[in-house]
């Protein structure tokens, strides 16, 4: 089934009876060339690019629950490429370029909306840091604009500019950043992969790896053994659990990050805004809800829910920044489990086991990376060489001293 | 979350800061022949279990003691707390 404006109009006039399922529900075969563990955004994107760009066949995606039931459905939908370090910025800008053509590539409306992101500046030192960051972004081909207080005021007049402790002095804007419909991203990739012959097998939990003589031969699952020449694991949040079945310990702790949405309001917040003094970021969904979040809870957790003190902290940040949202009612909050890595940056690499590849450690920034993560992981799986923009995401960078630490916080995951 | 402090009773987890896995107390021997590899594992690698986890919390807004808290990372249930100094002493006694 191909989507088009004509099809939408035709279905609207004929009672929407002609729509068919977006992907098949196949039984697992006995063996595949490539198995992707994890049917979330990154796993599905990997399968999509493997089939479409790298011409691979006989691919399966194994998902423990239902498709997109992990962090692809639990994020705050922000896409951006405003990183500082050379190991990160080209990768995220590559991702931004893939976002820009995602809907044409997948023929699926993922509601990519480039409404801009503004990081607020509260001190002179912060302006210097953001000027440097803006220039680093431009080196990698991204866009950045340093806004004065007056220019900012024209765009977002509702902020508390004269907060006694954290007055707003300006902002760093990336106009091409924005938001996307998170579930739509997973569905678009799933449909695109399925159309190209990828078997997406849901309710199929991987319970072990079959490894002989340092080589992976397949995976044990809740639906029996499935053989594979190559296995790629993309299960961020549960990476330590899954990779421990292959005898690996990872430079990762799992932490819970909460996010919140208010009742639906008329359009009021034009893009994404981040507080530069506390940890608070906000955007408005197309349905009208204010979507916002802040810090991780800060302790190891596999529970997809957090605790009240962080909720209070996030809401205080919001009230300090834009007092007008105090009148809006909080509709719901939720938590997602993050792979917090030891330097705050991800890993896309081979492992010490032949044929076993790992993609994880996305911290709380995995959503924006979905297209590039999938592309780079597909590149690695298909060619056995890292993609140019993902060269720095090696597993051995910790031992060798090549950490990519944007925050400069050291090996303390809850500070990244 | 309320942490059962061995000396002060139930205290709000907000009074504490979190460091991580209690194995961080077991620093490798810097004179061992493979000290570099052991320190690399010590600094960067974690077991990160889903379930019972022993971890270090510092009572920063309280008596400034380090605790070893046993907590379930799936349910957030706290199963116990000991003074880290007691744990270290017991460990030292045990290894004699």
In short:
Chain A is of the alpha/beta class and 416 residues long.
Spell out the blueprint of helices and strands:
The complex is a heterodimer of chains A (about 425) and B (about 100).
Chain A: H1 5-13, E1 31-37, H2 41-52, E2 59-62, E3 78-79, H3 89-100, H4 102-106, E4 117-121, H5 124-139, E5 145-148, H6 149-155, E6 170-174, E7 178-179, H7 182-195, E8 199-201, E9 206-212, E10 215-221, E11 224-234, H8 239-244, E12 252-264, E13 272-274, E14 281-284, E15 289-300, H9 308-321, E16 330-341, E17 347-350, E18 356-360, H10 366-383, H11 397-400
Parallel strand pairs in A: 1-2, 1-11, 2-8, 4-13, 11-18
Antiparallel strand pairs in A: 3-7, 4-6, 5-6, 9-10, 10-11, 12-15, 12-16, 13-14, 14-15, 17-18
Chain B: E1 2-5, E2 9-12, E3 17-21, H1 35-44, E4 52-58, E5 66-72, E6 78-83, H2 84-95
Pfam family, one (chain B): SoxD
Protein name (chain B): Sarcosine oxidase, delta subunit
GO molecular function, one term (chain B): sarcosine oxidase activity
Output the keywords.
heterodimer, A: about 425 residues, alpha/beta, FAD/NAD(P)-binding domain, D-Amino Acid Oxidase, Chain A, domain 2, 2 domains, eight-stranded mixed beta sheet, 18 strands, about 25% strand, globular, B: about 100 residues, alpha+beta, Folate-binding fold, four-stranded antiparallel beta sheet, 2 helices, about 35% strand, SoxD_sf (chain B)
Description:
Chain A has two domains: 5-81 and 84-107 and 182-250 and 343-415, FAD/NAD(P)-binding domain (3-Layer(bba) Sandwich), CATH 3.50.50; 117-172 and 253-341, D-Amino Acid Oxidase, Chain A, domain 2 (2-Layer Sandwich). In chain A, 28% of the residues lie in helices and 26% in strands. Chain A has helices spanning 5-13, 41-52, 89-100, 102-106, 124-139, 149-155, 182-195, 239-244, 308-321, 366-383, 397-400; strands at residues 31-37, 59-62, 78-79, 117-121, 145-148, 170-174, 178-179, 199-201, 206-212, 215-221, 224-234, 252-264, 272-274, 281-284, 289-300, 330-341, 347-350, 356-360. In chain A, a hairpin with a 4-residue loop joins strand 14 and strand 15 (289-300). In chain A, helix 2 packs parallel to helix 7 (182-195) and helix 3 crosses helix 10. The termini of chain A are far apart. Chain B is α+β, with helices and mostly antiparallel strands and 96 residues long. Chain B has one domain: Folate-binding fold, CATH 3.30.2270. Helix content of chain B is 23%, strand content 34%. In chain B, the strands form two sheets. Chain B has a four-stranded antiparallel beta sheet with strand order 3-4-5-6. A two-stranded antiparallel sheet of chain B has the order 1-2. The mean pLDDT of chain B is 96. Classes of the chains: A alpha/beta (416), B alpha+beta (96). At the A-B interface, helix 8, strand 12 and strand 15 of A face strand 3 and helix 1 of B.
